[in-house]
Design goal:
The structure holds 2 protein chains of 2 kinds. By secondary structure, chain A is α/β, with parallel strands linked by helices. Chain A has helices spanning 46-53, 93-97, 99-103, 110-123, 139-151, 169-186, 197-203, 237-254, and strands at 4-15, 20-31, 35-39, 61-66, 69-70, 78-81, 157-161, 189-193, 206-210, 217-222. In chain A, a hairpin with a 2-residue loop joins strand 4 and strand 5 (69-70). Chain B is mainly α. Chain B has 2 domains: 1-41, no CATH class; 58-250, MetI-like fold. In chain B, helix 2 crosses helix 10 (219-247) and helix 3 packs antiparallel against helix 4 (89-103). In chain B, 36% of the residues are buried. The chains are: A alpha/beta, B mainly alpha. The A-B interface holds A 54-56, 73-76, 78, 80, 82, 84, 86, 88-90, 99-100, 102-104, 133, 135, 149, 153 and B 149, 151-152, 154-161, 165, 169-170, 173-174, 176, 248, 250-251, 253.
Chain lengths: 255, 258
C-alpha cells in the first residue's frame, strides 16, 4: 500500500532574526495520497511547518524527506495556497492560474496548459470569470482561483495554510466540498494547516495536534468517516465528539 | 449643472475658474492703471503672443526638446539604478545615502559647472533636466520593489523561481504604478531643469527668450513666455497622467475620494 511520502524527523526551526524557537522535536509521517490536517493553538509554528515542507525555509536541526529524498529547497511537485489568495492584480484570473507553468518548464504546449487551467477553473465554478481581474472577484472566488493555481501543475503534494480562514461560514463549507471533490478525483497528498477543527475533521484522514511554541506533535487522530463525506456528518455525534476532543487537547496544550 | 458627467465637470469647472481669474487680472490692471512694464494685462500678453508667435513656437519646441531628451535619459538611468537598488539590500545600503546627498544639491548650482564642461547650448539644459528628474524615478522604483508583499514572492519561490523570475514576474509589474507615478513628477522637474539652464546659459529656448525680452523691457513677451511654459508644462503632465492610467489601471481601482 501507500508508503510514507513525507517524513519529518526531529526537526527544529530557530528564527535567527528574533531568536525564536518556532518548532522543536517535530516528528511526522504522512502517507502518499492521504489528507492530513494540522491543528494547534495560535502561534504554534504551523506556518513554519508548512514552509519547511515546501522548502521555503530549512530546518535548523533534523531533516525532512519527501519521497525518500531530503528537502533542500523549493520542490517543483508542491502546490501551495495561503490564507490570502495573493493574486497578482495586473493579471487576469486565468493568467494568474497559469503562473506555475511559467516557472516550471514543462514539456507541454501553451495551449494544453491553458486548457488544463480552464478545466480546473470550471470545476471550481469560475468558468465565467477567467478573463476577469482578481480584484473584480469576491474573496471566496479569489480563494478558488488560488486553489486552482496551487493545483494546475498537478502537484504531488498540496500544502494549504489556513486557506479558508478569511471566508464567511457558508463560502467556507462550499469550498470544503470543492476541495473534497478535487482531492477524491486526483488523490494528491494534502497537508492542511488550520484553526478550524470542524474543517480538519471534515476533510482529513489524519489530524495532528500541535503544542504551543515551540511546536511539536502531541496527539494524532485517525478520522474514519467514509469518503466522500457529506456536510451532514458534521452534525453527527461521532464528529462532534472528535472536534470536542481536539478542542480539549488544544486548550491543554496552550496552558 | 447637476447633470454634468464627471469628465464634463473636469473641463467645466477649471474653465470657469480660469476665466474668472483672468477677468479679475484684466479689470485690476484697468482700474488701478498698472503700467504695462510692471504687470501687463492678459490682453497685452495675448497681443505679444500674436506679435511674437514665431519666436515663441520656435523656442517652445527647443525647450520641449531639451526637456524630453533629459527626461528620456532620466527614465533609462532611473529605471536601471532603481532596479539595482531594489535588487539587493547591500547596494541599497551603499548607494541610497549617496543618492540622497547628491539630490540635496540644488541643481542650479551645477549649471555653471556644466557650462564649463560643455559650453553654452543644448547640453547643459539636457543634463540639468536629467539630473533634476532622475532622482524621483530611482526612489519610486526602489520603493516599489522594496514594498512587494512577501506572500507574492512566496508563491513564486515555492515553485522554485529564481531571483530573475521573481523580478520580472512580480517585482517589475508590481512597481510599475510607482514608476509611472514618478514620471508625472519627473517630467515637471525636467522642465524646470531645462528652463533654469536656459535662463543661465543658452542661446535659445523659452527661458533664454524671456531673459532677452526682459533686458529689452518687452515685459508682455516675458509674460507670454510664462504662459507658454504653463501650457507646455500642463500638456506634458497630462500626457504622463494618461500613460499612467493606461498602464496601471489595476492599481487605481479604489473608490476613495470619488
Amino acid at each position: 500500500m501507500a508508503h510514507e511520502f513525507i517524513e519529518i524527523n526531529d526537526v527544529s526551526v530557530n528564527y535567527e532574526i528574533n531568536n525564536l524557537l518556532a518548532v522543536s522535536g517535530l516528528d511526522m509521517k504522512i502517507k502518499s495520497g492521504s489528507f492530513s490536517a494540522v491543528v494547534g493553538p495560535s502561534g504554534c509554528g504551523k506556518s513554519t511547518l508548512m514552509k519547511i515542507l515546501s522548502g521555503l525555509i530549512k530546518p535548523t536541526t533534523g531533516n525532512v524527506k519527501i519521497n525518500n529524498s531530503e528537502v533542500n529547497g523549493p520542490q517543483n511537485f508542491v502546490g501551495m495556497a495561503f490564507q490570502n489568495p495573493v493574486m497578482m492584480p495586473w493579471r487576469k484570473t486565468l493568467e494568474n492560474v497559469l503562473i506555475p507553468f511559467e516557472i516550471l518548464k514543462q514539456n507541454k504546449s501553451k495551449k494544453e496548459n491553458i486548457e488544463e487551467a480552464i478545466k480546473l477553473l470550471e470545476i471550481v465554478g469560475l468558468g465565467d470569470f477567467i478573463d476577469s481581474y482578481p480584484w473584480q472577484l469576491s474573496g471566496g472566488m479569489q480563494q478558488r482561483a488560488s486553489l486552482c493555481r496551487a493545483l494546475v501543475h498537478k502537484p504531488k503534494l498540496l500544502v494549504l495554510d489556513e486557506p479558508f480562514a478569511a471566508l464567511d461560514a457558508f463560502t467556507r463549507e462550499e469550498l470544503w466540498c470543492v476541495l473534497r471533490d478535487l482531492w477524491i478525483d486526483h488523490k494528491f497528498t494534502t497537508l492542511l494547516v488550520t484553526h478550524d477543527l470542524r474543517e480538519a475533521a471534515f476533510l482529513a484522514d489524519k489530524i495532528f495536534v500541535m503544542s504551543a511554541r515551540p511546536g511539536k506533535i502531541t496527539n494524532v487522530h485517525n478520522v474514519n468517516f467514509k469518503h466522500k463525506r457529506d456536510l451532514k456528518i458534521t452534525y453527527s455525534e461521532k464528529f462532534v465528539k472528535l472536534t470536542q476532543n481536539l478542542r480539549k487537547e488544544i486548550s491543554n496544550n496552550r496552558s | 449643472m447637476k447633470n454634468l458627467s464627471q469628465s464634463q465637470k473636469q473641463i467645466y469647472y477649471p474653465t470657469i475658474y480660469m476665466i474668472i481669474f483672468f477677468l479679475f487680472w484684466e479689470i485690476s490692471c484697468y482700474i488701478f492703471k498698472i503700467p504695462v512694464y510692471f504687470l501687463p494685462s492678459p490682453i497685452d500678453i495675448m497681443d505679444a503672443f500674436r506679435e511674437f508667435s514665431d519666436a515663441i513656437i520656435e523656442n517652445s519646441i527647443q525647450t520641449f526638446y531639451t526637456t524630453f531628451v533629459g527626461f528620456g535619459m532620466a527614465i533609462i538611468f532611473g529605471l536601471m539604478i532603481g532596479i539595482l537598488i531594489g535588487w539587493s539590500n547591500n547596494i541599497y545600503a551603499g548607494l541610497y545615502p549617496i543618492m540622497v546627498g547628491f539630490n540635496s544639491i540644488p541643481k542650479v548650482a551645477v549649471v555653471p559647472i556644466l557650462v564649463l564642461w560643455f559650453g553654452i547650448g543644448d547640453v547643459p539644459a539636457v543634463l540639468t533636466a536629467f539630473l533634476i528628474s532622475f532622482f524621483p524615478i530611482v526612489v519610486n522604483v526602489a520603493t516599489g520593489l522594496a514594498t512587494i508583499e512577501p506572500e507574492l514572492e512566496d508563491v513564486l519561490r515555492a515553485l522554485g523561481a529564481n531571483r530573475y523570475q521573481i523580478m520580472t514576474k512580480v517585482g517589475i509589474p508590481r512597481s510599475l504604478p510607482y514608476f509611472f507615478g514618478s514620471l508625472k513628477i519627473a517630467i515637471t522637474l525636467a522642465f524646470v531643469g531645462s528652463v533654469i539652464s536656459e535662463t543661465v546659459a543658452a542661446n535659445s529656448g523659452i527661458g533664454h527668450m524671456m531673459l532677452t525680452a526682459q533686458s529689452n523691457f518687452e515685459v508682455p513677451l516675458v509674460f507670454a513666455g510664462l504662459v507658454a511654459l504653463a501650457i507646455e508644462g500642463i500638456g506634458m503632465y497630462a500626457i504622463m497622467a494618461l500613460i499612467e492610467k493606461k498602464f496601471t489601471f489595476w492599481a487605481h481601482r479604489s473608490q476613495f475620494g470619488s
